[in-house]
Amino acid sequence: MLETDDSALEPLAPATAKGAAMRERLLNASARVFARKGYEATRVEDIVKIARTSYGNFYRHFRNKDEILLAVLKPLVDEIYVASKRRIGRSLKATEAEFVENTIAYLKIYARHRKLLRVMREAAARGEKATFLSLYVTERSRFVRRTSTWLTRLQGLGELSGELDPEMAAEVLGATMEQVSYMKLDLASEDPGDAEIEHIGAHCAKIWYRGVFGSVKEDSAAPN
Fold this sequence. Notes:
By secondary structure, the protein is an all-alpha fold. It has 9 helices and no strands.
């Protein structure tokens, strides 16, 4: 993981309501620009033009385009993280049908923000050239850690084979979802509809679930 000075990535908090309104205006403008132009082609000039403000206002709130991209993406990643959590009251292992439901919920939120999430991968691919990589690795690790913790707990209860490495399994399964999301959603020429997302989600979830727990009986399998 890339080590960075965390204080250098902290946003500059607005001191007044007017400042907060300007910050929000800049965030909305940058989301539009990044989604349309991608990471490399976006310039601070583009953002201030859409926001109808000055460079000075931009730099009062953000140090560079990496920092404003972080601020735009963080709530989106948080939304996806919450959407993909196990529902309260369900068993620890969860049925395949429940897993399908969670995966589809994850993908529907992902699809809603697919253009900006594509920018996230584009920015992270620049590696240490962008301060963005640190956040990408940190945010991704939240998902992997949650899955690894879940699999470890299931191993402790005898619900999962002891030969499976929970951390490695979480990495592989997480990477599979990331790549499918990128190929089927990020790179799609048009916004995917609910039926397509449900089809993708059901297949991803079944392959994921059966890869970890083995095949399921036909009468308990999730619908297509």
